[in-house]
What does this fold into?
Amino acid sequence: MKNVVLLGSTGSIGRSTVKVAEDLPDQIRLLGFAAGNNSELLLEQTRKHKPAVISINDPAKAAELRAALGTSCEVYSGNEGLLKLATLPAADIVLIAIVGTAGLQPALAAIRAGKDIAVASKEILVMAGEIVMNEARKHGVRVLAVDSEHSAIFQCLDGKPGSSVRKLWLTASGGPFRDKIAWPKEKFSEITVERALKHPSWVMGQKVTIDSATLFNKGLEMIEARWLFDIEMARVGVVVHPQSIVHSMVEFVDGSLIAQLSTPDMCLPIQYALTYPERAASDRVQTNFPKLGMLTFEEPDVERFPALELARRTGEIGGTLPAVLNAANEVAVEAFVNRKINFPQITETVRRTMNAHKVVLHPTLEQILEADSWARHTTVI
Ligand code: MG
It folds into this structure.
């Protein structure tokens, strides 16, 4: 039985995690939930799964939950609540699926308390990959990836050392604007928010869906992979694969390529992270191989999607620059969703902010958080 704390239980990944736990009642116990704002769903999840501790961002909502739940469960709020949950003595693993940078401190707290962490929030490894991985090594805990691509690479590597790897290949769906004929570069300024939110193969949260359309999502994933698998950026490649069946692959030094495949469903990487090193039987994900028909691959179009090269350079330089890229992108995506800037201006805005930043190499956590807040104030729309 794995005792799981779930930070971000009401979001897209959080809800899938609850489904996985419901599939495997003898193997996964949900010990704690934290949510941002959705107290109705948190209440429903709590009544059903009876976790020992829950937390919600707003203290007023926490008081309402306390009144509704009585003494059946401890209720906390804010960052204090997240830290409380991340370090619960009975927890084996903490799955962090909070949007934004709020997951960073709880991730480090969990590691220092000797917990394995499963990371769905990209910010954690993008901003502080060096610190997080060093701390995990120091405390002898695992950092497991929930992202489908990183889970795929982890499964393909199967414990092989970096010296046996020639290259890691992240697959990218290419997003809704992959088709060069339908969406030439000149038409990018006409892209509406509604259109950008229609992802061809994955159903995800709003921020990550826009990031998939700009390819910033893949850029952030390259930086994550660099830290998670301790490999230099030059050995992290991206290939566009519109069907999203091959979730990623590893090219070994002998030229052999191992890929991980399935129909796209986030429940699979979530379940793998929570049951690792075992594989638990589940009927949820079914892949009819003969019916897949054609799997295609193509070079990413760096002309139309400059975010990819911007992220590669960011990962090569490192230091505080990935935190700046991440923060500027968050601000720019919000501005796009609120119709203040057009689609190409997302990447342009991020580039402008990055150019104005003085990079600190091998930063402390404080310097990373400073760079993050600097970028949020400096990013001009
Ligand atoms: Mg992904």
